[in-house]
Amino acid sequence: MHQPAVPHLHAADPDLAGLVEAEARRQFEKVRLIASENYVSPAVLEATGSVLTNKYSEGYTGRRYYEGQQNVDPIETLAVERAKALFGVDHANVQPYSGSPANLAVYLAFARPGDTVMGMALPMGGHLTHGWSVSATGRWFNPVRYGVRADTGRVDLDEVRDLALRERPKIIWCGGTAVPRTIDFAAFAEIAREAGAILAADVAHIAGLIAGGAHPSPVGHADVITTTTHKTLRGPRGAMIMSTAEHATAVDKAVFPGLQGGPHNHTTAAIAVSLREAAAPEFGDYARRVVANAAALAAALGERGFDLVSGGTDNHLILIDLTGKGVAGKPAARALDRAGIELNHNTVPFDPRKPFDPSGLRLGTAAITTRGLTEAHMPQLAAWIDEAVQATAEQDEATLGRIAAEIRGLLADFPMPGWAAA
């Protein structure tokens, strides 16, 4: 059953309560490999579901437009100070509702409509909000895009420099949504300085690894840093913007009143809890285990003939090109879900297929590491993935069902925050 228990929800809306309980069980029984998901602690769940959701707090600490902020102000201050201490930044804004609004605030702070901006192309691993055409950021600004080398699957920084010096963007984004390799923040910073651009580091996927010392930090290199607070950081569905002191006022004005009204105080509280958890020594151990599990899983998949973009991973994320397996990403992802393995279909660099029916799979090890799986489990997990992909091609539902049962048997021994046997 869901933990914390939801007896009032059961009494008031049994239909919805049943779906919540079913989702808790689903999360318990599946190997969750979606790179942007994780499990939060019971403390984060409790903060998210607290009476703080009742309070409206437009403005900032000490400068609100509503009364009754005696408790909300200290909560937001806790979250801000914990973010500053954990990441070693001058300034932190914890009010953005999610990652995309946080990134939009960066544009509002440092660019005007029509200005040139630069980011990694979406099919190469970038994010929609880094200037892709279907996003407002690609329609309101003049986007120029960099990619990766066809032979290595890695960013060619010489090409990035040439593009930046030719186009002179106001903002350069580094980071993305499907980047399996270490980001060279220092090199991007040097390029941004030469081009006279603001460097924005989007670390949504790797924030927890940075906090835990398992990935280099953009602090000291990037002018502004955006991140979601879930994924590897194991917090609620929210976001933060961090910056140097020089840019603090511009960032804050862009978030409020530029884009948002009142912050979600229950989320702010949950962010504060997760930041306290991330500052504990054991979180560093967790971050290192995430990276070790990803490396072990990538190696095991490679041994089974899977084509990994860039040849492997340096972080939590693995990107697989299924072209050589004769199966497309979407049917493989759906079959894997039926086999108890949850991940997502994804474009791969230079993908000849359409984005909604791409050639690849994206997976990550943050959630399974939270559950307690180790490097020793990765060869078996790779074997299940291999079997399921083959079963996809052969339309072999019996094999998918058998794998799902075996996975349920394995995971029964690994507790999940948010679920407990009745």
UniProtKB/TrEMBL annotation:
Residues 10-385 form the Serine hydroxymethyltransferase-like domain. InterPro entries: PyrdxlP-dep_Trfase, PyrdxlP-dep_Trfase_major, PyrdxlP-dep_Trfase_small, Ser_HO-MeTrfase, Ser_HO-MeTrfase-like, Ser_HO-MeTrfase_PLP_BS, SHMT-like_dom. (6S)-5,6,7,8-tetrahydrofolate binds at residues 122, 126-128, 246. GO terms for biological process: glycine biosynthetic process from serine; methylation; tetrahydrofolate interconversion. GO terms for molecular function: glycine hydroxymethyltransferase activity; methyltransferase activity; protein homodimerization activity; pyridoxal phosphate binding. The record marks 230 as: Plays an important role in substrate specificity. Its cofactor is pyridoxal 5'-phosphate. Pathway: One-carbon metabolism; tetrahydrofolate interconversion; Amino-acid biosynthesis; glycine biosynthesis; glycine from L-serine: step 1/1. Its main location: cytoplasm. Keywords: Amino-acid biosynthesis, Cytoplasm, Methyltransferase, One-carbon metabolism, Pyridoxal phosphate, Transferase. Homodimer. HAMAP family: SHMT. This is Serine hydroxymethyltransferase. It comes from Thermomonospora umbrina. The lineage of its organism: Bacteria, Bacillati, Actinomycetota, Actinomycetes, Streptosporangiales.
